[in-house]
What does this fold into?
Amino acid sequence: MRCIIYRCSSKEDMYLYLPHQDDEEKLLDKLSGDLQKLTGSLTKVMELELSAERKLARVDVNDVIAALTEKSYYLQMPPNAVLRKDVSMLHNPSDSF
It folds into this structure.
């Protein structure tokens, strides 16, 4: 399965995987408003051929393939260290990114 990976502007190390389409603008226009709010602006990082044999750095490729098939997207969340930094901002506003 071929996919396109986008970097999300809303959080460091958050990526959105979408099934490949030749018309990327049309692909992005189909995203729900809630998903667009969550991801912020998207920057294309790469196109990738996914298969059960392929290893991905931080996520299970089978989870990505299943999500692309069932939901037409996979949202890779930032690692816990980045999320903890976001939460720490609530307690210490001077601790900025």
Notes: The longest helix spans residues 80-91. Helices lie at 24-29, 33-39, 61-70, 80-91. The beta strands are 2-8, 15-19, 42-49, 74-76. Residues 2-91 form a domain with the NE1680-like fold fold (CATH 3.10.510.20).
